[in-house]
Amino acid sequence: MNKNRARIKLQYKALYSEIEEILFRHDPIGINFGDNTDEYSSEVDTILPRLKEASSQADVLDIVHEEFCRWFD
Questions:
Q1: DSSP string of 17-52, one letter each residue
Q2: What is the pLDDT of residues 7-34, one digit of tens each?
Q3: 2: DSSP letter
Q4: d(Cα 70, Cα 66) in Å, to the nearest integer?
Q5: Can you say whether residue 27 is alpha, beta or left, with left for phi > 0 and alpha for psi between -120 and 50 degrees?
Q6: Region label for 62, one of left (φ > 0), alpha (ψ between -120 and 50) or beta (otherwise)
Q7: Positive or negative: CA dihedral 54, 63, 57, 59
Q8: 20 to 30 Å CA-CA from 32: which of 13, 24, 40, 72?
Q9: What per-residue confidence (pLDDT) applies to 16?
Q10: pLDDT class for 1, splitting at 50, 70, 90?
Q11: Cβ–Cβ under 8 Å, residues 51 and 22
């Protein structure tokens, strides 16, 4: 695990795991093969710090969308 991910996990605690699990369950880009539960960790690393910018559900959706476009575009 890289130092940045360790710092983010420590800072956000259970929220990190919850967001990671939500992304894995909903599998927005089709990479859930059942046993690769950490596949969305990189995206969580960049989504979580940005959530403080959000003031609505729409803002959260925009952040998630922007990060997925950044990672996979």
A1: HHHHHHHHHH-TTS---SS-TTTTHHHHHHHHHHGG
A2: 999 999 999 999 999 999 999 888 878 8
A3: -
A4: 6
A5: left
A6: alpha
A7: positive
A8: 13
A9: 95
A10: low
A11: no
